[in-house]
Amino acid sequence: METYNGLINNLIDELASLPGIGSKSAQRLAFHLIALPQSKVEHLANTMIKARSEVRYCEQCCNLTDADVCPVCANPKRDHRTIMVVENPRDLAAYEKTGRYEGVYHVLHGAISPMLGIGPGDIRLKELMTRLEGDVDEVIIATNSSLEGETTAMYISKLVKPTGIKVTRIASGVPVGGDLEYIDEVTLLRALEGRTEL
Ligand code: ZN
């Protein structure tokens, strides 16, 4: 027996398809949305649509932005000669939260994974190599310590070394397989400070 009819079920199904939302949370959210004033729901929906259509990759570091360059790249006080390579914007946000990293970033939007069929051409490596034609002193590889992250780190170090630019890897204070976004700020800073040259 169906408890709710079509529209309510559709809403619950759509919400449950989002990451981290189980069926119970989806139900709770659906009823919350239905109870909101129409104008609030329209505002929420429009915010999602606007963000989806206007957010794009930063021309320099591939971070998410709604302008040509992201706030980190646009900041003249940052050290633009030090580039930290991360897998995704969430990892960038984790390092930004420490408030102690003064360089800039490069967001790969993934990691090399032969098992999943993700090769070097599927992540933003070409953009990184183009950036290295400019004035760069150091590339800090801060990919995750998973198999994919380590494979990507090795690949990048092989690409960068011939350019003569210093390549370092953050220390493994970060647990194996751990996503940077879930790691506390002290551990992130320790990993950065303890980085070693590749
Ligand atoms: Zn940027």
Short note summarizing the structure:
This protein folds into 2 domains: 6-54, RecR Domain 1 (Helicase, Ruva Protein, domain 3), CATH 1.10.8.420; 69-197, 3-Layer(aba) Sandwich (Dna Topoisomerase Vi A Subunit, Chain: A, domain 2). The protein contains 8 helices and 7 strands, in the order H-H-H-E-E-H-E-H-E-H-E-H-E-H-E.
**Which small-molecule ligands are present, each listed once?**
zinc ion
The CATH class of the largest domain turns out to be Alpha Beta
Biggest sheet features? 5 strands, mixed
Rough outline: elongated
Q: Radius of gyration, rounded?
A: 20 Å
What is the terminal-to-terminal distance?
62 Å
| CATH architecture label of the largest domain | 3-Layer(aba) Sandwich
The total count of strands amounts to 7
In the predicted model, the low-confidence regions spanning at least 5 consecutive residues are: none
How much strand content do the residues show? 5-15%
Structural class: alpha/beta
Calculate the mean pLDDT score and round it: 91
Strand order of the largest sheet: 4-3-5-6-7
Helix content: 40-55%
CATH topology category name of the largest domain: Dna Topoisomerase Vi A Subunit, Chain: A, domain 2
**Domains (count):** 2
Contiguous helical run count:
8
> How are helices and strands ordered from N to C?
HHHEEHEHEHEHEHE
